[in-house]
Structure formats: C-alpha cells, structure tokens
## 1
Amino acid sequence: MIANLRVVRTAFVLDIKQQAVDLFMIFGVVIQPLLIATMAIYMLKGQDISRGIYVVVGSGMTGLWTSLLFRGTFGINAERFMGTLEGIVASPTSLGTVVIGKTLASVSVSLLSMLCSYAVAALVFRLPLTIAQPVPFFASLVITMLAFISFGLLISPLMAVNLSLTGWVNALEYPMYILGGFLFPILLLPGWTNPVSYLLAPYWAARALHLTSSGVATVPDVLLCWAMMLLLGGAYIAISYRLFTVVLRRARVDATLSLM
Amino acid sequence: MNAIEVRNLRRVFRATIGTIRRRTKEVIAVDDISFDIRDGELFGLLGPNGAGKTTTVKMLTTLLIPTHGTATILGHDVVHGASAIRPLIGFIFGGERGLYWRLSANDNLRYFADLYHVDPDVAKQRISELLELVGLAGREDEKVEGYSRGMRQRLHIARCLLHDPQVLFLDEPTMGLDPVGARQLRQVIRNLVAQEKTVLLTTHYMFEADALCERVAVINHGKIVALDTPEGLKRHAEDLHIVEVEVFGIGHETVDQLRQMPEVDTVSVENRDQKQALLIHSRIGSAIVPQIMQSLDGNGIRLGKVTVREPTLEDAYVRLVGGEA
C-alpha cells in the first residue's frame, strides 16, 4: 500500500514536471480556457454581470476536462511512443496506480484554468467575482477532483489496447462541454440528452460548482451532487479495475504495448 | 536447476493488409522453440534481424502472450504467473526508447525504483552506485534528451539493475555504444554473472557472444537452428575455409553467380565504407580463389585485398542462417 502511494506521488511529481514543458498542455489548460472565458464574457455583455462567476467556473471546467482527456488518454499513447509503457506494465506496479498519479497531476494543473479565467474576468473585464458559498464551493472542488480522477481511470485503459482509439478522443472534448453543462445549463438541451448527462460525474461536478459559486445552492441540491459524484466515481473505479485487467491482457495478446 | 525453461514456444502475429478489401495475414515470429537456461548461466540468442529474438524476449518478460507453448522463469509461468515473475526480472531492449527524455537520469531512476517498490533509502544508495557503475555520475541531473545514444543505453542498464533482479534479459545492450563503452558494458555483464545472475543476451556481435556466453542458440526465421557452446558452434564451420575479397560496387547478379558455384557453401556481403567485403565459405580453401577471380573479372568488378582464413563463430553463424547476416 505504502509502495503504491509512493508510486502515485512520484508519478504525480514527474507528470507535473513534464506538463510544465508541454506546449500543448499549456494551450489546453491556460490559453483555450482563457479564449472560452473571453468569448463567453463578451456574449454576456449587457446582461446580468453576476453571471461572471458562472463563466469563470465553466471555462475552468473546460480546462479541467481537456487536460484530463488529453493527458489521461494521450498519456498512455505517449508512454507507448516513448517505449516506457512496456517498462511500466512489466513492473510489479499496476498501470492503474501510475494512471492515478498522472491523472491527479492533470487535474491539479488544470485548476490553473479556473485561476486564469478568474484573473482575466476580474482584472481585464472588471467583473465582480464573488464565490457566494465558499466552504461548499471548495468542498465541491475537492470532490470534483476525485470524480475527474475516477473518470480518467475509466477512459485511460482503453488507450492501452489500441492506438487507433486515439482518434475518438478528439471527438469527446466538446460533447462533454455541452453535456456536462459547463458553460450553460443542460436544460437548454433536448430532453433526451439529459439522462446521458446524469451518468457523467463531470455534469454533477459542474452543477455543484455553479450552484455554490452563484449562491443559489440548497443543502439537498449540493448533497445530491456530491453523492452522485461519489457514486459515479466509485462505479467508474470498479469498471476501470476490471477494464485494466482485460485490456492489458488483450494488449499482450495483440502486441500493442509497444510499436514493435 | 534451470532459471528459464522454454517449451515449444510459438508466437504468431496477425497483420491486416489492404484498404477496402482487408485481409488478415499471419506472420510466424517464433516457431516452436525450446531451450533451458541454467541458474547463473549467460546464454546468448543470436540471429539476423527479424529472426524472432526480441519476440522471444518479450514473451519471457511477460509483455507478450505466446500463441502456443509454455515458458517458465524461476518456476513461474509467463502467462499465469506474470505478477510473480515481474519483480524477479530486469530487461532492456536495444535502442534509445524506454526512458523519459524530458526528465533527468535521476528522475528516471527514482521513478523506476518506485515502480519496483525499492525502499527509498536503498534506492538512493543503489542509484548512486549504478550511476557510478555506468559512468553517468555527475551527469544525473541533466535531462535525458541531452544525452548521447551511448549514455541513454548506459542509463537503461542502470534502470534494469535498480531492483537487483535475479534474471536479466539484455536485448542488444551494446547497440550504439562506442567500443570503449561496449567493452565496459561487457565487463558489467561479466560481473553480473559473477554475482550468479542468470542472463539472456541477444546480440548481433559474434565476438561478444563468443567472449561472454557459455552457450549460444542461433535463431533464424523463428526457429532455433543450433544450440551449443561457442566452441561447439564453430565446429559447424570447421570443414570450411573463408575467402574474404575486397570489392568495389558488386551487384546481386554477381553474388548470385558465385552462389551457383558447386564448391561454394555460402556467400555474404558486408558494406565497409566505399568498398564491400565478399565473404565466401568453401570446403576447398584457397583452391577456389582462381574461380572467384575469374568470375569477378568477368563481371568487371574492381578487386582489392584477398585473404583466406580459418572459420570464426561468425562464419559458423553465417552458415547456420544461410548467408543472411
């Protein structure tokens, strides 16, 4: 257990070091959310300026998702290209443990998205940004990180099995912005899409953060969001545990752990 | 006692070809091979590119599941006992991949030490010793991307020794090293065997196999074509004499013509800068030289030095793999 925690810590630290020099991640975590925030603020011009915090939280969530998606999934492929995936798989540590450390790093770094969006909205556009219910907001943020890590664990093993799945990852970025209700409420979407949103922990995360930052959250609302995030997170972890076993065996059969 | 036991191991790869009408093609990479490696033995696996050496090593290191047959490492099956095998083995694959280039050597080694659950205090001590051993002490805080090919290869060696494994798989470990670095590495390998480690070494360099290995298996087209001590393998070519001719610009047609000669056993060509070395194995020794000269002259090939010598392990190997080296 302690040895595995040590792996999580080392994978976390080394991934942060690598992300710091990865220009694509700097774009995904800092520049893209800033562009989205700026665009949304312009769209809100002339409307209720108290919605500024909604924009900051929403654009921050886009950075969180982009970072998780690309780092968590392309991360496995990057390991394959570097030839390090075999080194990890052939070690006594499970690939899932390494992925937890790397995903934790992605999620932590992507909190920068929220900070950057906050800084732009407050300093450039002079929007009044107040987190109405700070304690529930920060508690929601911690549970959000856990939910996102579990979601990362669910999607990353799929990348270990097949290189061609990477193409599909690109297609997952924007649908989550919409189905997750990051930038506008899902009630604006066709009703049949709502059940899909309810199965996504990022949706409950966005809902909790929006409600607590805007100050319209009731205790049952927030508790429901937290419970759903924890419930779905637990389900993702259970599925991913099985998935890692199946997928790694498949990869050893199909010889997809390396570019032989 | 045997550290490694391989029985009828076979690995088939499936590749899809075609764009619209896709078909699956099967490639047999390893074809029904069997061998044992004794505890503490340094065993060599020799073969040309694509012979199946790396596939064999990948199956033994639990990275590939065999299509057929069984293999055990220290009594554990490579398919069902993979998790028991992993802490006991170390491996390196030839080339520069397998390291984090944007991180320092120290970061790389610390990470892999954690992956192998090496106690942090032990890891710290061992990393420092291994950096010294592979000649990277003082450079450990530099990013790997700034390392030369040889330095990366040496870092690989340090990485695979971090957890003090009992069995080592070294897939062309001296590839890309300069002669001094390669010699140092061979000494490291000798020291490992002196510490009673079991080593499976694949290499292209015959003198390396000759100098290091107790026994050598020659693998070609996925099959083991010979398995013996280096001295025993040399006996495969003891009836031969080797005629080595320096030539300039020899073509396939001329080589094929030489192969047709009844007294010629095998012909291989090595590129050496501007010129090529034609290696002709023959049972009749220097008596074949006039015929060879006549054939080369007839094809307008410019000649250099001609020598006739006794066979080496490399000549035995060339004979065994049919001149494909």
Note: Residues 2-254 of chain A form one domain.
## 2
Amino acid sequence: MTGATIDHMISLTILIAALLVAMMTFNGLFASAVDYERNRQVANKAVDIMNTICLSPGSPIDWGETNETLLGFGLQDPEAGGYTLSPYSIMRLNTGNSSGGSQIVYYPHTGLYYNNVSANYGHGVLIPLGDCVNYTDAAELLGINGTYGFSIDIAPILEVSVSQVPVSPPQNHLILKVDVRGSGLPLSGATLNYNLFHVKKGVTYPLIATYSGVNQTDSSGSAVIEFDNVDESKDAYSFIVYVSIGGVTGNGYYTHNTLGDDNQLVIPFIQDYDQGTVIIAHSWDVQGAGSPPVPEIKYNATFFALTSDFQFQQIEIVNNTGHLIYGVGDPYFTTQLPVSEVGLLVISYKRDATRLGSVIMPWGIGTLGVSTSFDSGFGSSGYDFVATELRQVMIDGISYQVKVSTWSLSG
Amino acid sequence: MRTVEVLFVIVILLTAFLITTYFAVLPSPSQAFGTNLRELSQSTLETLDADGILSASVFEDPNDPAWTDLQKALSASLPPNMVYNLSIYDLTADSQGVVNYQLANSISDANFGADSDAASLMVTSPNVTFTQDPQKVGESTGQNITLYILNCSDANGWWITGYTGQTLAADVYSLLSPYFTTIVLVNSTSELGLLLSGTLLTTEVGESVENAVVVNTFGEAVPIPDDYCEDGLNETEGFDPAHDGGTYAKYFHTLGSLTRQYNWTWVSIVGYPFYYVTNTNNPHISSSQNSYGIYGMKDVRRAGSNAFLQGLDNQGYVYDENRIAFDIGVVQFTSEALDRCNYYGIYPAPYQTSSRALADDILDDYHLDPFASVFELKNSRIAAATFRHQDGSGALTAIGLTRIPDIRVTALALLMYYNPTVYKSEFGASGTSRLVTLQLGQQGGT
C-alpha cells in the first residue's frame, strides 16, 4: 500500500513537472510564432505604404501642382509613371514637425507660417503651411492613422560636395573641387555638367552671367574646375553641378557671397502654389532687424528651367527686379514662375558696390538635390519592431532613394 | 508502474514537441522582415533605364566602357550591404517562333548568401524602332466603313453616370480612331436627322452612310431629331399616339428599319437599349424628365428594344412591352475576349455586372445570329455581343452591363466583331530585345 502511494506521488510529480516543461516550451514556440506573425504584418504594411507612395500619384493626380484638397496620398509623378516621384508633391509635404525637418518660418507681412524645405545657406523652398499636407492627414489617407506609424526619407543617391580650393596670391581666380561619392565610395569617371551663376557688379540690379561646361571625375572621384573670370574672394556666385554615370545621376551646389556673413538678405516665399507666384522679401522682415544701417537691397530674379540633358534655359519672368528697403515702401515684391517647368529661381542681389550675394529657390526639389523627411516628429523609438523598405526613384531626373519605416502603434 | 506510464507520457510529449518544431519552421528573419529585394531590384532597373542608359549600355560590346559605368552605377546606388548580379540575356527566335534566352553578359560584385531575389526588365535596342499598324475596319473585305459617333450637344445621357455623351464620344474616338479610316462626329440631333435621311455629313471622300457603324454614347437614351418628334415633319415615323399615352417606340422601329436599309451596326454602349429618347430643345421633350430628374428625355421603356428589333427584322411596327433584357449578375469574359484584350491592348475588367443582358429568345424571334460574344452565356442571357440579322442586313451591338459604363468594353466588342489585324514589328526578333535581370542579395544581418 505504501509502495503504491509512493509510486503515485513520484509519478504525479514527474507528470506535473513534465507538463510544466512542455507548456513552457510550447509557450515559447507559440510566442515566437505570434511575434513573427505580428512583425510580418508590419513588414507587409511597410511594403503597402511604399507601393502607395511610389506607385500612386494620389488623388487628384496633380495635387502637387495645385492648391486642391488631397483625397488620396501618393507621390508618383502622374506624367512619368513608374518609379518617378513628383517634385511638386514632395514640396507640399509639411516637414516642419518631422525629426530633422527645418523649423517653420513666420512672415509677418502675410501673417502666414511657411513650411521650410531647405538645403543650406538659405537656399530652399518656403511654402504656406496651410497648403501643405501634414503627417496626420497623410496617415488618415493611407488608412493607418492610429494603427501604424511611418516615416519617409527621400535623399539623393549620390553625395556631391563642392568646395573652394584656396589659391596663392597673386593668383585670385576661382578654383572649385567637386567630390562625388556613391554608397560611401568615390565615383570615378562620372560626367559633370556644371553651371556657374556669376553675380555681375557695376549695374543697378545685379545680373547673372552663366558659365557652363563639362568635366569628369578622376580615379579618386574628384574633379577640379577653374574659372579665370571670377575672383575667388571678391565675387559672389552660385555653382551647380549635375553628375551622371551609367544611369545614376546626382547634383551638388556651392554658393559664395561677399556680404561678410552667411545670412542671406533676400528670402523668397511661395505665395500661390497654383499660379507659381513668389514673394521676394527682405530678410530683416523675417529674421528680425539687424544692426543699423538698414541694408537697401536691389535684386534681379532669373528663372532657369532645367532641360533633360542638365542644361539651363533662361525663361523670362515678370517683375524680375526690385528695391527692398526694410520698413520703407513695399515690404515685398512678387514675381511669377512658369509652373509647368522645373528649374531654379536665382535671385542675385547687392547691398552696395562690393557686398553682393545670390539665393536659389528650387522649383521642384530635385533641381537642387534637396533631401526631405516626413514623419510625426516622435520617431519609432520605444517600439519593438520597425520594418524598413527601400526603393530607387527619379525626381527631376535625379536619382533618389526612398526609405519608408513602419511600426505598429499597438505595441 | 505508474512511473513507467508517466515516462511514456513524457516520451509522447517530447515526440509531439519534436514533430511540432520539425514542421512549424518559421522563415529566417531576413526573409520575413528584410527589405523587399525584388521591388528594390525592379526600381533600380527602372531608374537606371529612366533615360535609356541601361537599354543603350546592354547592347554595347562587352569591352565597351559603358559596362564599367553600369557597374559603377550599380555599386553607387545600392546600399553597401547589398550584393548584385546583373545578367543580360539575348533573345533569339528560331524558325518555329520559339524564343530562346542566351546569356550575353553578366556583371557581379560578390557571391550570394542564402537570401536573394531578382527582378527583370525587357529592354529594346535604341537602334530599333517598333511599330504597330492596325488594319482599317473593312479593309480586308474592300468595304468602306465609316464610324459615326453620336456627340449631340442637344441631348442628355442616362445610365452613363459620371460621364456625358460628349466625353464618352471623345473616349470612343480615342480608342477606335486607329482602326477606322473615316470617323464622323454627329454633333446635334439635326445632324442625326440628316444621317437618318442618308445625307453625308462631311465632304470627306471616305464617308459613306452605307455599312457604317453608329455608336450611341448616350447610354439608354437615344437622341431624336425634331422631325421625328410629335408635330415634326416625319412624325408618323417617330411618334405613336395610340399607345402609352403617346410613345416614341415608333422612332426606334424606324431606326431598326434604317439600320437594316443602310446595313449599319448600331452600338448601344450600356444598359437597356432604346429605353429613352432625348432632345433638350424640342418642346415636346425638353420639359419631360426620365423620373430621375434628367430633363430633355422621354421614356419609351421596354417597347423601344422590341420596336428596333422589329424594324431590323423587317417586321411591321407592333407595340410590344415584353421584357427582353434581364439582370444576370456577374459575368466573365469569354476566352476569345481575353485573347483579343491582349491582341488589341485593351484591358477592361474581365468580370463585370450585367443587369440588362438580352435573352437568347430574340435570336429566333428576330432572326439574329450572335457574333463576338464578350461574356460567357449565363442563364440563356447574352450580356454583350453583336447580333447580326441572318440575311446580313444590319446588326446591333448591345452591351447590357450596369452603370458606370466602361467604354473599353464597347471598343473591345466592336474590334472582336470586325477583327482588324494589327501588324506589329517583331519584339522577339534576334538582336532587338534583351532581358535584363538584377539579382540582389543582402549580406550580414537585418
């Protein structure tokens, strides 16, 4: 009798232990499967979002070129199709709240806040915030508001940097060095199509003289370009270079002003996206008044349309010259761009005979190789699993990479 | 003893666990959650070919610097943890037309690990021009067939929600213009009156009223000229005061008779054919509405189709309200229609909803033969086909689908009926096309 009881106790103990071990083991197996399934849903959602963004123009299909209300979100260029994104739709993304996005700008004379899709040194696009699509609206239109978070990063594939090479006196001509890298490696043998916008002195409204040429990068991915007619320290200029090799394209730029500091004195704002109307404002009205004397600015605005072979074609625009005096007369002037042409608005200006500068506003983000990020501003930190998708796209003929990151908000 | 039994239970549990783990194998994380390599590969190929650089490069000699540039472009554009293999296949066709793929060249930067995926792109030589020349309708039989598209500005449409007759007329023109030598837009009901009287509407040499195709883009409504309306010059051919308090079923009988007389193919693009007449300027019709708020329209209802078919069959006019079109729900393309979609490059959805399919009783009642059925027969109803009279005089193409109309179905039905040949240059000819595949692999973890 005692033996049977002991047998019962031992067998029951072993059975319970075995069951516990089995339950823990199966639980671990099921937990992995559940995690896998949940993560796979997030990964699939990332693919869905990427497909919608890259392969659908949204609704209406030309929403990027108008002020119309967005009914369906997508960034594909409706005229080009395929993996080509609309440079205009991207300009209408509200990146003010995005992590890494530039701060929004307030302009008191219009009473509006402007989204700032900027490169550096003051070049960029300032669009009325009310005309932009914010993250929440985009998430709602994608059908994921409250269920998934996402971020979009659009950046050029090629990294093109331009620097000025110092020369020894008595030489004073301009030498620029262009470095091209792709995926972290120098890119040799790349063709460079470059343009130098030289701000001419000695005229009331400073004109732009354009110098263009073709060059090629050497084995270290660099090229040196010299301009005999430009004084490296006393002249103001902007330099744009387009790089291409084997179907991959990129661009870079460099600007030199003779104002004495890096602050631009002229700031262009987009007034009406539909009509292509641009406000040309005095920087003191935006950034606050500086130290007297008040700089009087005389500017000359020139629009260059970008052709398919990376050449610039000058297009006449209305009211291309103006005289901006802070606190006196008209606070700003307006001009109008041809909305159907991507290109660059180059505004050359002077404060006095020796202090000149130029500022560039891209019409279509690819023309200046501007990167952009679009997200909620909170990022994906704190979430266990983030799925990422990569695609190569073209914007304004420039090769870009789009990265979409997606995570589940339900934990 | 029970300890032994428990040991058996443990063995069973262990076996169950082993079997479960053996079959429940989850894919590796890189396969499940890694970047979608196929789409990345596809987008890379498409962007490299955006300006035709890829197409031009792959036709160069393997020693040409273009290949080096292509390799640099791939290395520069792909993330550093990606490896690639770009293979180019030459397409050659043997005498039987069988296409063979031969590896022409390949560039690669490393060996692949376990996980890789590929996409492909067919590229054509920039030195070759491909053409596609459609034969004109009637050309093979020596007939001069004019396409008349009703584009009347003084008419309203019904069952064409989202469109107007005029916008559909533009779509018909766009779709069918490559296949017809002469296309005439009938811009008003008075021009339609001229056409019905056999008068040419233009001075074009090729225009012919006989053997023409007449496309009614106004859906279930058909424009009616003033002359055929009440108090019009041809009132007796259009208006029947004896039935339904005065009906225009007589007009549709006249249309059927003229379709027979001129050997027309009358095309109804959607819905119940000949259900309303429309004329927004005629005083007897302009103030009428179709009970859905569309003015300039008077309903004839079921008697319209019967009257048309009586005219087409050379029968006398008898007012007949019997129903001949029925709701049969979802219908699917015939295999012939699917084949013709590929042939003509027109791709409507192969599954559509038919709420006005014609009963096959009409074939016997009016001596018709069905041709070029777009959809499979369902419940003895024909959703879309061309019904030609057995003595060869006149035909009706009826698309009995529900709204919103897909005008591509009409175009497909007509092309299936007339079957014009499309002369295409051979894409698979040796040396003109190459298949480019890009295989991508991800090195390291995800």
Note: The mean pLDDT of chain B is 90.
